[in-house]
Specification:
single chain; 168 residues; alpha/beta; three-stranded parallel beta sheet; two-stranded antiparallel sheet
């Protein structure tokens, strides 16, 4: 049986599922997600810690977050990559929230931020002690609801034949 898709995502972690949702939402075409077990099974679901992002610009800023990240990485991190991730984090956090991720909030309804690791400010968002499972739950729900995304569970990607391989 031949199946044709515009996008192929191998694995069901946060990166692949986020990408699938973004291209499907943009009506760029049909997306196939191939999972070696189930859509719910990934390293994302096992992550207990939180996600670092500048969310309170009154006390935090991107330069501080970049500096903290460079120090924690003993200055061997690619600074351009760190800057891109840090500066885009708030937008990506809001996308996760829009997809249904329930980060913990304080009594005022604001994110319940923590300070952990090498961070000099309170910028860690979390969901109890199971942030990864919460993100996975939300993304799986959205994936299953999207008409332009097909999921193939219990499949292995062994060889991918593309138009290039067919001489097209």
């Amino acid at each position: 049986m031949t199946r044709k898709f515009d996008f192929l995502v191998i694995g069901s972690g946060v990166a692949g599922m986020s990408y699938a949702l973004k291209v499907a939402r943009a009506n760029k075409g049909k997306v196939a997600i191939v999972c070696k077990t189930t859509l719910e099974e990934s390293n994302t679901s096992k992550a207990q810690g939180g996600i670092a992002s500048v969310t309170n610009m009154l006390v935090d800023n991107f330069d501080k977050h970049i500096e903290d990240t460079m120090i924690a990485g003993d200055w061997i991190s690619d600074r351009d990559a760190v800057e891109q991730v840090v500066r885009n984090a708030p937008e990506q956090i809001m996308e996760l929230v829009n997809w249904g991720v329930n980060f913990d909030r304080n009594e005022n309804g604001e994110f319940d931020l923590h300070r952990e690791g090498g961070h000099s400010e309170f910028r860690i968002l979390h969901h109890k002690d199971s942030t990864g499972a919460e993100i996975q739950r939300s993304l799986v729900k959205r994936i299953q609801q999207h008409p332009n995304i097909d999921v193939f569970e219990n499949y292995f990607a062994i060889e991918i034949i593309t138009q290039h391989h067919l001489g097209q």
